[in-house]
Amino acid sequence: MREVYILQHSYDIENFEEIKIIGIYSTLLKAEETINRYKDKKRFIDYPIDCFSIDKYKLDADNWTEGFVNWEEANEEV
User: Fold this and answer.
1) Alpha carbon distance 76, 46 (integer Å)
2) What's the superkingdom here (predicted)?
3) pTM for the predicted model, two decimal places
4) 19: part of which helix (H) or strand (E)?
5) How far is 55 from 41, CA to CA, in rounded Å?
6) Contact assessment for residue 11 and residue 5, using Cβ atoms and an 8 Å cutoff
7) What pLDDT is recorded for position 1?
8) CA angle, corner 34, sides to 3 and 20, nearest 5?
9) Residues 74, 50, 64, 13, Cα dihedral to 10°
10) Mean confidence (pLDDT) of the chain
């Protein structure tokens, strides 16, 4: 089964999570190379490298089979 790698950059600002999808890549290496290109660019350089994340997803597959929680439910679990 074919997989893709989604590269995101996220951080918390004033109790809000800011998330940017940088791109979707065919290999992990391409996503990692993109981090290396972006980490020193304007604004990205102001945040730690661990604000970048790469998630692997299978194509043509259900990726949210367990469902999800809304903000109210998430706050109850804390």
Assistant:
1) 32
2) Bacteria
3) 0.80
4) strand 16-25
5) 22
6) no
7) 65
8) 80
9) 40
10) 91
